[in-house]
Amino acid sequence: MANIAVARIKREFREVVKSEEAAKCNIRVELIDDNFTELRGEIAGPPETPYEGGKFLLEIKIPETYPFNPPKVKFMTKIWHPNISSVTGAICLDILKDQWAAAMTLRTVLLSLQALLSAAEPDDPQDAVVAKQYKENRHLWEKTARHWAQEYAEAPKSKKDDEFYDKVSQLAEMGFDRHKALTALSAHEWNMERATQDLIS
Amino acid sequence: MSEADADMASQGSDPDDEGLSDSSYQDYSDEDINDYYNYGPDDMEQDDRGQIFDPEAFEYFLFNKEEACQFLDERVAELTQTIQFSPQVSHTIGKVLLQAHQWVLTEVMERFREDSVQLMVDCRILPPPSRAKQVEPPPKQCPVCLQAQEEKDLLSLACNHKFCTDCWQRYFQVQVEDGVATGVECMWSDCRLITTEDFALSILKNSPVTLRRYQQFAFNDYIKGHYQLRWCPGPDCDVIYMAPQPLGRKVQCKKCKTCCCFRCLKDYHVPADCPTIESWLRKCADDSETANYISAHTKDCPKCNICIEKNGGCNHMQCFQCRYDFCWMCLGDWKTHGSEYYECSRYKENPNIANESAQAQAREALKKYLFYFERWENHQKSLKLEEQTFQRIQHRIKEKVMNNMGTWIDWQYLLDAANLLHKCRYTLEYTYPYAYYQEGGPRKKLFEYQQAQLEAEIENLSWKIERAEQTDRGDLENQMDITEKRRLTLLRDFSES
User: Fold this and answer.
1) Which end of chain A is more exposed for a tag (fewer CB within 10 A), N or C?
2) Which among A128, A23, A16, A20 is positioned nearest to A71, based on CA atoms?
3) Distance, in angstroms, between B187 CA and closest chain A CA?
4) Is A25 known to be catalytic?
């Protein structure tokens, strides 16, 4: 690991820990190994979004050429969002690609990701299925995204979402994997018949 | 074609070959055409110098890298001399301004006269006025490596975002690694200012390898960004085309012999224009499955039903068994293919189609596409087969010369005829994508009429060339003249000006 990358990560790590946002439990970062090549990030789901109350874990890998190349970041927590792959957690965000600048830091990355959760860019999608739903049936997208946050990101549950749980449970009782059942239902507007068809084929 | 062949051919007729053997890089001039077609140009349009208007004439030059460099430098010098830059504005900034405007000199000058500051902001040389006095990083520390630095070791662009030389150097290395050169931006977040060549030079002066790659990529960016320049699309070819008027016309590389359209760099395609040929090729790629079945190479003789393989380029077929003359495209009697009745290049649309069901319409659309595709592909195949004819002719000429039947020059007209046939059939091939996208109306009728005429003459020429032994030389040359005239007439009326 180049000296400059290590020096930067040490400093940026401290910056996040001491930041205002960390004090409010909005963002967090921890070290995975001693040579600063991998970190674990966490962002809170922003208020007034379907992700509110959820905690989203991020895998952060620091390249040898950091900070001249961006860190490689992906979601470890499964999430239903137009710019994040519901399968791999890969993120489509300009500052993690060509709009990265060497003067940016881990803190700016985490805050940008949090902003992405508040404001999706459906015209520049990573997950085409989610983006299509976001544009065509915004209400169903919100409900689905909230359900995913409750299922995977420990967001608080409320009574009104029971319908989705029942459907997933029904399919699970038929012997399908719970996550696969949830994915199939989400991709087919929670239509049991079409989701089952998808799972069988 | 070898040099010797090219010289021989240029004594004959083909203006294309004239261009090839010409010692200057310039394409054939009007005079060449004029000389050859000087007899009887009554039906040709003439320009004010009394010369015949050639729809394919195109002025272009072939540059090597040094010549292209010089060409670019001259444009920059022209700019800096004309608009009297203030002292701090240099050659290298001129390059940035031109690159941001596809090197259209007049546009840069006009914008400079209107509002020079706005131009500099738009071209990312100066920061927007609102940002000009933003906070600076903590003094004497590089915000990237966080190391303490002397003030004099910190460098910045006009935005005043200061970074140390080491960081700039590492940053350039990473960017050049990714193939970025003219677009390397300031390292500050949200700052879009770009580095100039001089700045890169001063940063990379101690890393010659990176510097050399930077310069290669930057040069490549300039060529790609210049409206008059194009890299030759030939494999590993480093020739650069320069056309004063960047039109969709034919250019040929002298080094790798690639022949293409200057504007889109695809195979030359008049009378179809660049967008037409692009949609056509995409359509052909998409619909290749449907078109597969027509790629069979054989058809049955319409009279005696013997299976016939087409082994020549000519569409005028004569059955080996029953001697029936027929057309390969429509399988109709060839006798009806006199110039007035030649109709198998014309697609007859069902006039009632608007009232038919959606399914019938889809079938009709497919039928229409297949009609044009079949003809386009057929001419492509004919071109391939006629290449073999060309080789055969060369071989036969050699034999004749060996047996003291005339000299090499006596038989050159046969090669000229084969070359001309290739050129005409090539144009004919590209009339089909054009016709497919052309809207109906009197112009389409005229186009189809001319296309049919050209088609008929090309088949006559092909027939005569394949039977050159029995054909009288005068007759053949007459046929060549007619065919080329038909081709030029069609192009004159229908290719974009």
Assistant:
1) C
2) A16
3) 5
4) no
